[in-house]
Amino acid sequence: MGCLTSLQKLCFVEAIQGSDILRKLGRLTQLRRLGITKLRREDGMELCSSIQKLGDLRSLDIISINDDEIIDIQCMSAPPRYLRRLWLQGCLETLPPWILSLHSLVKLRLRWSQLGYDPLESLQALPNLSELQLRQAYSGDELHFNAGGFKGLRIIGCELLEAMPSGIEFLTKLKSLAFADMDNELIRKLQRKQGNDYSKIMNIPEVYYTYSECGRWKQICL
What we know:
Layout: E1 9-14, H1 19-24, E2 33-39, H2 44-51, E3 59-64, E4 85-89, E5 107-111, H3 120-123, E6 131-135, E7 155-159, E8 176-180, H4 184-191, H5 195-201, E9 206-213, E10 216-221
């Protein structure tokens, strides 16, 4: 694989094949999109070393070998500066600090991260982030948006909420908001268009709720 130096898209590579294949990724310096699946904790450092060499990378997917496997990608001192899309699926002990240096990042998805602290506090400083999706990304009870944060956010996806995140009313540029598998009582409140939770999202043009029924996904407009 290391001889395919003109390759621009590589999706998906199973990291479980061994650290040697992750090491060879660093030779593919023209890659613009990379997808890694079945990543084990012990292979994280090798993957980080290779990703740092991919200066043209625009899109990156990293998926762990299972829901509880920790994605150890903390040690990246020089991430691809033009990265626009980042999908991380797997347990994170902490949010990788290099994410906060991705000033070109437009889309971010965190799934199964199980962070013990609210990630919005850090992510709100990303200047070009316009789409954020969170699924089991935070093990706490509340998410909080600060006034003045997420200046470019247009779409946000949240799941398993029991209450509207505090401060979401400050996202005045938000155009679309999507929820999934929310608390039934919260849904009823929003559908009645009453109460404090509804007042937080009443000025957002598009608000959707996605749910599973009889094995099929359905979507309603709130």
